[in-house]
Target: heme o synthase
Amino acid sequence: MIKDFFSVTKFILSFAVSLSALFAYIMAKGEIGVDMFVATFSVLLVAMGVSTLNQVQEYREDSKMERTKNRPIASGRMSPRTGIIIALVLILASFVFIYSLLGLTGINFFGFAFIWYNLMYTPLKKRSAVAVVPGAILGVIPPAIGWLAAGHTLFELEFIALAVYYFIWQVPHFWLLVMLFHGDYKDGGYPTAMRLFGEGTLQRLTFVWLILTIHAGIYLVYTFNVYLTVTVVLSAALGIWAFITSLQLLKKEFKLTDARAIFWKINAAFLGIIILLSIDEYVKHHL
Model:
């Protein structure tokens, strides 16, 4: 039962998402505080809640796909009603925590996350192969929560650069997964970018979005007025690594299974830049 709970809430993915709030808080304030943990925990709860509701919405499609057929609701181990109850409890709990931290502003952000993810993005996935683009807006909400919890506003240039970085990052991240699991998505009845653009065009489009993400990362590092030289050097090294990795998408001998290694490498590089900037801001405020 515990294993099914972690599965239906996509706990690992939800936890990874919540870290965006933690890093944004440190990047904004250069401190580690109680508010940071409340913000991170609130994001974790709402991410788990909307993810559970997503599995309720898609359990029929999930049951047709090899990758997802063993999920609790899709496999029949958990009823959709139980999934709805878990989702509501988690979402309501997240509202309580975020209200205690940000008041109605936090409620509005989490309400938007629910509406955008479960009522807009989830249905749109079944109708459009490019749903990931408007869906990428969701990637900006966790860092926005962390930034606001640190006492800053979302109109600051540093946050705008951070938001653009997270937004652009979502698209190549998802399209690399499409390359790996396009057969599954087809079995589930989803239109995919692979079917819309074709294999070669999707590779080139993903490469373009990766280059855009690298450029957004360069702008992000520049905007944050980095304190440590080593931060600039390591960020540049990660950017070069991401660029070299991205070039594999343009090779004639590229195979779709190669997308797995590219997926992990570029995500590690892009996350590494966020971690470096967080450490840099913390050091800047303590030296």
